[in-house]
Automatic annotation (TrEMBL):
Name of the molecule in the record: MD-2-related lipid-recognition domain-containing protein
Keywords attached to this entry: Signal
Span of the signal peptide: 1-19
Gene source species: Gigaspora rosea
Lineage: Eukaryota, Fungi, Fungi incertae sedis, Mucoromycota, Glomeromycotina
Keyword Signal among UniProt keywords: yes
């Protein structure tokens, strides 16, 4: 019992002075996009932060309030960009395999999403929408979040 108490106090002390750093403070946080009238959603990723050239798993949960998800039409898109807006690699798109009515909560897991070669600072964008036939506006975006990742 004395060893347990000693180990607990030592561990707490190490954490207090940050000798044993953890990646808990390096989680990627997603924020609302500046696109007007779109819904927000929750995104978590593994590994976090992403690693260049390795497959990433995205967990996405959302309730779209104004739009329906249409099977084999509505897509979930993931893209990476440099801080200057330059695209990093090809965007990843996946259509939904089920339909959902507006107001229904749904969760989607995308595995093995390709991760491009990443610089020390970049953006990750996640969108939900439908394609259009309008070349000036090729997407109707229903939901959008982004994260700014700075490794250091």
């Amino acid at each position: 019992m004395k060893n347990f108490i000693f180990a607990f106090i030592l561990f707490a002390h190490l954490l207090t002075i940050n000798v044993a750093p953890f990646k808990l403070n390096k989680r990627t946080t997603f924020y609302p996009c500046s696109v007007q009238s779109v819904d927000l959603f929750i995104v978590s990723i593994v590994p976090d932060p992403p690693e260049s050239g390795k497959g990433e798993t995205f967990y996405v949960s959302v309730t779209l309030t104004k739009h329906e998800i249409i099977k084999n039409k509505t897509f979930l898109g993931i893209s990476y960009a440099g801080l200057d807006g330059t695209s990093l690699g090809d965007p990843y798109y996946s259509t939904f395999t089920e339909s959902y009515k507006a107001g229904d909560l749904f969760s989607v897991t995308l595995s093995d999403v390709p991760t491009p070669q990443l610089p020390d600072a970049y953006y990750i964008g996640v969108t939900v929408g439908d394609p259009t036939n309008d070349p000036k506006n090729p997407l109707d975006i229903y939901g959008c979040v982004y994260a700014e990742v700075i490794r250091g």
